[in-house]
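Hey, quick one: can you model this chain's 3D structure?
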Amino acid sequence: MDDTEVYFVAEKRGEIKADSGFVDINVKYSIGEMKSADILVIPGSTIGFMKEMKNNRVLK
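Sure thing. Here's the predicted structure for all 60 residues.
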């Protein structure tokens, strides 16, 4: 996909450990730094996904 940009974003910068404990992601951008997203992917388990779906900062 031409002109595609992918960012790993979280509520705050830094290392994020997956709830499985198997994966760590170094997040370089906070939610406050992003103006918008065409696609939002929330990886993780069903429990983690449901938690983030209730987080207003993520969905704005």
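One thing worth noting: The chain has a mean pLDDT of 80.
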